[in-house]
């Protein structure tokens, strides 16, 4: 039975723990001692209005009084921003029963429809700590999920969030499986498709293991944190949007999983498919085009793996009622010049504005993808989509539509620049024979992207380019000198980022 002595007063600590709710409590306070709390315990926090499950951090100083419990920013938000001094009660959280099914998966058992639903439901409810989420991600890593498991997880993820129903049979979407720095085709494709009268409500994720996701890049240009209602208004007005999926709670369990995947730098083939398909279904898509880049340092590194992923994506999509088409593209090198949110946003605008300095490869790939979607949407006969996509871009219609979408989402913003930069030059002459996508992405990430929007890299060369000693290879950008130094330290130990070979006579 709760008494007047069983509570602590809440205090906002102003500590960013990302999405994980954390509670801070003195080790020797009466609640910690009476409940037998240990550091990193999972505890339930109850206020008069709501309750959450959080991770406990014990304090061994006078940072808090014996009558206070501190809250991280994530915990503060989940408790609906209480006021300092509000009372709360604390108890041990109930054990998470579905963890037994995660452990079973780690030992080789298959997930069933029921166990997948139990796991995703518990993740969505916030019952998993980051450590438990890491166990789940590890259990699913690589190709450890078969088709039935992938379908089960996808259905469970769809059921965990909101759903859009646009009331029409033709709603287009596209997605790239990732692993290729730059490659920011989505804003250009959406503008071209929507300019031709097709409906394309595009929701995107933030970066997982890359220096930028589409949502990160679009956030440089406009508001992407759209509510459910605002997203619907934008699409009804302009036929399309470019929003962060997490803001409208489409497959929210996936956003929690992605956060841990990013920290671990782990991808699961089945979880990737579940992530992609669940969000397309939740967003109300009917026809989906999927881009699978293949290259020696891309996420998908062989034609065999690409075919396996294609089959898994198409089979899972069909099982959930989607018309899914896949296209396998060149993943041997980054697409575009900029790598990082602001730099990729600059490339996007250059293409849309028909700027003579726009990266040609980004333009060409965007037109290719838009062509497929225009044909899928019935706006062009098979084989004629490219011509329509080109005319839409060259005429300025795509740029006009993009500006209209941004205006509907809150306005088009100016792109800012980083304060610090360093140009890396060739130490020998020859031909660019190899570009390591993973190292390029790692360098841009170490420089601060995507958390620092203006950080990243400008790539100055392409495969096959003739290079003289001293020519610029790439320029790193950072918002702080320490981050720039951090990236350059990594470069010192990894000389094979870009390989230059002498031409054979």
Description:
It is a single chain. Helix content is 40%, strand content 19%. With 505 residues, the protein is of the alpha/beta class. The chain folds into four domains: 7-92, Barwin-like endoglucanases, CATH 2.40.40.20; 99-159, Up-down Bundle (Transferase, Pyrimidine Nucleoside Phosphorylase, Chain A, domain 3); 172-251 and 263-409, Nucleoside phosphorylase/phosphoribosyltransferase catalytic domain (Pyrimidine Nucleoside Phosphorylase, Chain A, domain 2, 3-Layer(aba) Sandwich); 420-501, Pyrimidine nucleoside phosphorylase-like, C-terminal domain (Aldehyde Oxidoreductase, domain 3), CATH 3.90.1170. The protein has a six-stranded mixed β-barrel with strand order 1-5-2-4-3-6. The chain has a four-stranded antiparallel sheet with strand order 12-15-17-13. The longest helix is centred in the middle third of the chain and has 17 residues, at 303-319. The N and C termini lie far apart (87 Å).
Q: Helix count, per DSSP? A: 18
Name the poorly predicted regions. none
The CATH topology of the largest domain comes to: Pyrimidine Nucleoside Phosphorylase, Chain A, domain 2
> From the 3D coordinates, which CATH architecture of the largest domain would you assign?
3-Layer(aba) Sandwich
Gross geometry: globular
Number of domains: 4
What percentage of amino acids are in beta strands?
15-25%
End-to-end span in angstroms? 87 Å
What is the number of strand segments? 18
């Amino acid at each position: 039975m709760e008494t007047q002595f069983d509570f602590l007063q809440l205090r906002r600590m102003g500590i960013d723990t990302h999405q994980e709710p954390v509670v801070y409590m003195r080790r020797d306070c009466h609640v910690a001692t009476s409940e037998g709390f240990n550091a990193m315990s999972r505890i339930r926090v109850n206020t008069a209005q709501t309750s959450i499950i959080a991770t406990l951090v014990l304090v061994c100083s006078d940072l808090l009084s014996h009558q206070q419990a501190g809250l991280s920013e994530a915990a503060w938000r989940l408790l609906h921003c209480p006021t300092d001094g509000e009372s709360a009660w604390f108890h041990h959280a109930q054990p998470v029963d579905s963890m037994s099914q995660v452990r079973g998966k780690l030992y080789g058992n298959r997930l069933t429809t029921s166990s997948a639903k139990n796991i995703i439901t518990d993740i969505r409810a916030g019952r998993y700590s980051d450590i438990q989420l890491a166990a789940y991600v590890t259990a699913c890593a690589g190709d450890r999920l078969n088709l039935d498991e992938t379908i089960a997880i996808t259905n469970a993820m769809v059921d965990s969030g909101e759903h859009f129903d646009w009331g029409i049979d033709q709603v287009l979407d596209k997605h790239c499986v990732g692993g290729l720095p730059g490659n920011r085709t989505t804003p250009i494709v959406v503008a071209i498709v929507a300019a031709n009268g097709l409906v394309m409500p595009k929701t995107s994720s933030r970066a997982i293991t890359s220096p930028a996701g589409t949502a990160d890049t679009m956030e440089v240009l406009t508001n992407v944190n759209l509510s459910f209602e605002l997203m619907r208004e934008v699409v009804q007005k302009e036929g399309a949007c470019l929003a962060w999926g997490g803001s409208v709670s489409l497959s929210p369990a996936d956003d929690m999983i992605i956060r841990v995947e990013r920290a671990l730098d782990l991808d699961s083939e089945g979880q990737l498919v579940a992530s992609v398909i669940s969000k397309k279904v939740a967003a109300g898509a009917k026809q989906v085009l999927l881009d699978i880049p293949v290259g020696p340092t891309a996420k998908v590194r062989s034609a065999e793996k690409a075919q396996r992923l294609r089959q898994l994506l198409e089979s899972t999509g069909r099982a959930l009622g989607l018309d899914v088409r896949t296209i396998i593209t060149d993943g041997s090198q980054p697409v575009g010049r900029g790598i990082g949110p602001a730099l990729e946003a600059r490339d996007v605008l250059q293409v849309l504005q028909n700027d003579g300095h726009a990266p040609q490869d980004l333009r060409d790939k965007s037109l290719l993808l838009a062509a497929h979607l225009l044909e899928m949407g019935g706006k062009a006969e098979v084989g004629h989509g490219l011509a329509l996509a080109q005319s839409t871009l060259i005429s300025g219609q795509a740029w006009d539509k993009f500006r209209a979408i941004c205006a509907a989402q809150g306005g088009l913003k100016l792109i800012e620049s980083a304060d610090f930069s360093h140009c890396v030059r060739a130490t020998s002459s020859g031909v660019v024979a190899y570009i390591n996508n993973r190292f390029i992405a790692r360098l841009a990430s170490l420089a601060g992207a995507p958390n620092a929007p203006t950080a990243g890299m400008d790539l100055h060369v392409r495969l096959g380019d003739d290079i003289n000693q001293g020519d610029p290879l790439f320029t790193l950008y950072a918002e702080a000198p320490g981050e720039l130094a951090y990236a350059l330290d990594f470069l010192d130990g990894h000389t094979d980022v870009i390989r230059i070979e002498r031409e054979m006579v």
